[in-house]
Amino acid sequence: MPKTHSADTIRATHGVWVVITGLFVVLAAFIAAVIAFSSTEGVSAALAPVTGVVGALVGAYFGVQAGAAGKAQADAARDKAESEATALAAVADKGPALKVLEELRQPEPATVLSDEQIDQVADAVQAKTGTSGEDSK
Predict the structure, then answer these.
(1) Which residues contact 25 (CB under 8 A, 6 or more apart)?
(2) Most-buried pick from 43, 107, 120, 133 (CB within 10 A)?
(3) H-helix segments, 37-135
(4) Are 28 and 50 in contact (CB under 8 A)?
(5) Contacts of range 6-13, beta carbons closer than 8 Å, 24 or more positions apart
(6) How far apart, in whole angstroms, are the C-alpha atoms of residue 95 and residue 98?
(7) CA dihedral 45, 49, 52, 71 (to 10 degrees)
(8) Residue 32 CB-density burial (10 A; 0-12 exposed, 13-18 middle, 19+ buried)
(9) CA dist., res. 62 & res. 65, Å (int)
(10) Structure pTM?
């Protein structure tokens, strides 16, 4: 029977290989820079771009992996909640359940400010800026 691996195991294994590969690239670049340059300034100047790029790539890899793991967890939680809602809907009384669904499907009413609230906001702006409503016209 073929051996199966979880996504976390595969992600961890690939992560180890990404880090090891990055370390070998930096080590190879260091050896090449030491051979090519006699001064420490030359070696550090040659290594700076390599270590920056390798660091960015390794960081991006792990960032993508963390995002994928978070998405997988969110998807699992959503699927669980959906299953629970479906199970509850199956045993709920039809009348109240349809009423709740109808209420959920209604759009949210827009927030409307009263004239008094608008005047309060205008007064606060005038006090803060030192202008009156007539100045802006």
Answers:
(1) 50, 54
(2) 43
(3) 40-91, 94-105, 115-129
(4) no
(5) 7/69, 7/72, 8/69, 11/65, 11/68, 11/69
(6) 5
(7) 180
(8) middle
(9) 5
(10) 0.49
